[in-house]
Amino acid sequence: CCMPGVACVPALLVCWSSAAFIISYVIAVLAGHVEPFVPYISDTGTKPPESGVFGFMINITALLASITMYIRYLLIEKQNESSHFVRSSCNMFTLCVGLMGCTGMGIVATFQELAVPSVHDIGALVAFGSGVVYITLQSIISYKSCPRWNTYFVCHIRMAISVISCIAFIPMIVFASKISMTKIDWTPGEKDYTYHFMSAICEWTVAFGFIFFFLTFIRDFQRFSLRISTEIHEE
Known about the structure:
Layout (H helix, E strand, L loop, with lengths): L7 H23 L19 H34 L4 H23 L6 H28 L7 H26 L15 H23 L1 H6 L13
Helix pairs in contact: 1-2, 1-6, 2-3, 3-4, 4-5, 4-6, 5-6
């Protein structure tokens, strides 16, 4: 089988989340709701019909990400039984940070940008901020598990993605904070367009950084399987 173990979970997450971004973007552009050149991700899910597609698919993405993170937590716990390369409390903390990011994604999907901008922005900040912290902590844990459970090549890839995401996250927040209006139909040359453009580029960079990071989980998940045991007690 091409997807042994539970590798299908991160693979489905990567495919579904990529489709969520791309489908919403295509619908929004074809409907004329956003300019095709680097809109915010949230801009592509603000007006119907793309808002329904965006909300549904991002909520499923948050669920798949939560499942992936939990399986990753179990995998590290199992590996740690023989190797003792990380504290269990650190592994649990990393999981909690990741689940917090998934909660932020749910908020972003539920509260549209123009309908409830303050709640939407808080959700986006939690999603991206927690996501960056999560992948950074996972990169550090990966290095600690070398060379038995990970190759240094994979660790370098994960850390590179984490560093790029961290670097992009900071200007994303800085440029977004300088925008004085909330709108989705941006055109070049108008006030704050440069801030919007730079912030949007950083946002897409961080989002696809998450996708590529979870892509590196597939090989790890191939050698890990979950078994549900049932016990019948006779009286």
